[in-house]
Design a protein that fits this description.
Region (Disordered): 150-188
Strand content: under 5%
Biased composition (Basic and acidic residues): 156-166
GO cellular component, one term: nucleus
Low-confidence stretches: 203-212
Distance between the termini: 130 Å
Helix content: 40-55%
Shape: extended
Strand order of the largest sheet: 1-2
Radius of gyration: 40 Å
InterPro entries: Homeodomain-like_sf (IPR009057), Myb_dom (IPR017930), MYB_TF (IPR050560), SANT/Myb (IPR001005)
Protein name: Myb-like DNA-binding domain containing protein
């Protein structure tokens, strides 16, 4: 029987594992593990450990960004249906591995327990193991929910958008009003203005102006 170890993977091991997965795909872990054993000193890992290392750490499709509130809600929704079948739940969360989903789920539960126990005396604090707590509907509903509430500002903005949307629905669609074309009123013909007549006085060679 192959002895399992928990010692950290080295950069060389990771590099070789990536190369072998690229060559043999994701279904030949026994072969991958055998080749790893020939090239890595003191190799004692199992095929399952190779697979888990790839799925949880090396797969380039893994999402490592912070979990969104929507992702957490979807996680809780699927947990109510599938329980601890993390690989099944991972099908609904793109880029999240089963192991990362499990770790995040229990991280949230532990945060909620700490939050619950913070201002309570010892006799009222939650002290049971998490698996036992989740079997009880009271504690399941208390603990299986996002640990972070939305910021007040974001909540107010969301509420304001909802109110505005409801107002638009009540008002109905906007009507396309044709702009009134302003017409310029016809002006009455102005009275003829007496303009000066211009003529030259040849004798004086000056311009003289005279009005009728």
């Amino acid at each position: 029987m192959v002895k399992k170890v928990s010692q950290p993977w080295t950069k060389n091991e990771d590099s070789l594992l990536k190369s072998l997965v690229s060559t043999f795909g994701l279904k030949k872990w026994k072969l991958v593990n055998k080749i790893m054993g020939k090239h890595c000193k003191n190799w004692v890992r199992s095929p399952k450990q190779c697979r888990d290392r790839w799925i949880n750490n090396l797969d380039p499709d893994i999402t490592k960004i912070t979990w969104s509130n929507q992702e957490e809600l979807l996680l809780f929704e699927k947990h109510r249906i599938y329980g601890s079948k993390w690989s099944t739940i991972s099908r609904y969360l793109d880029g999240r591995s089963g192991n990362s989903i499990k770790n995040h789920f229990y991280s949230i539960i532990r945060k909620n327990i700490r939050k619950y126990n913070k201002k309570r005396i010892y006799g009222d604090k939650i002290t049971e193991d998490i698996p036992e707590l989740l079997k009880k509907p009271k504690f399941y509903n208390l603990l299986v929910r996002p640990s972070k509430a939305k910021p007040k500002r974001a909540k107010k903005e969301a509420e304001a958008k909802t109110v505005e949307k409801q107002k638009r629905i009540r008002r109905g669609p906007k009507k396309n009003k044709k702009k009134d074309i302003k017409t310029i009123p016809e002006q009455e013909p102005q009275e003829m203005i007496n303009l000066p007549n211009i003529f030259y006085d040849n004798s004086a060679a000056e311009v003289c102006l005279s009005f009728k």
